[in-house]
Amino acid sequence: MPTLNSQQEKTLTAFITALGQQDNALPEGLQKQLHAIGQNLEARILELPAIAASLPNLNQAYQTALSDTQGNTGTPAATFASSTNQSDSDKQFNRAVDILTADDPVQAARRSKASLGQIASNPLKRLFSRG
Known about the structure:
Layout: H1 6-20, H2 28-39, H3 41-44, H4 48-53, H5 56-71, H6 88-100, H7 105-115, H8 123-128
């Protein structure tokens, strides 16, 4: 299984969060690049900040999400027991690979966010983003 350090996990979490906040699909060239990164994520995770920086809206969302994850250095308030042997880090990694290799990574990130049951700040936006 992949071995990500805490900074790599924060980078990945922030990027996926920022991706899910985009209003439009990424340009085709970036989607192809994300697909390639997703196929070898452990070795190419350091490319994600450069991709975020290539689009102003994505970069702004990425920087905000990154600062949110940087501030969260404590241990989580609660953890869920799992019937599988897969760690949370492994699940996050596999989810990220699925998102990055999807035909439309923005839509995949949105679906993933909704399926995790995160509370949306605007329920109507959440409702209509599933279209």
